[in-house]
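Hey, quick one: can you model this chain's 3D structure?
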Amino acid sequence: MPHNIIVPGPQDHFDVFRQVVIVAPPDQQVSESPRRWRIRATPEVHPEPGRKPGSPARFDVALTSDSIRTLSLRALEGVRVAQTRVIFTLPRQFRTYSRALAYIEWFTPFREPDPSSGLRQVSRSTRQLHRNAAVIHVDEILRLYHLIPKMGVCRSQVDKRKCL
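Sure thing. Here's the predicted structure for all 164 residues.
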């Protein structure tokens, strides 16, 4: 997405969505049906008396297209991992972009595979000690992606804001 600065006013309202469904072409080796992935971005819902029970936040991690390089999913070239935080559209007065957008937080580019597991490693990308984030078109989201946590010593206190 080009680097444009859009300054919303206090009266501007953004349509926010809980999920987006990504439809990928079929993999002929597996199935002739297209593959669908649901990418969710839902905040925590606190339980209230007389209402449904609360639900935890769900911010899915996805593979996104990195427009800098040529896309190759098989070799993980031209793709990058990101966590989807908000899916939205711009208000009418900003309709330069008619497609839905996603506010995402980047992970670092894939590192070399781990010698013991063979898995590629990523970590949160930061700039000046803050998470590196961007707004992208949802068309740049390629598929759902699952991360395996790095195991280690358990801390006594867990900060929910720093967890996936």
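One thing worth noting: The longest strand covers residues 79-89.
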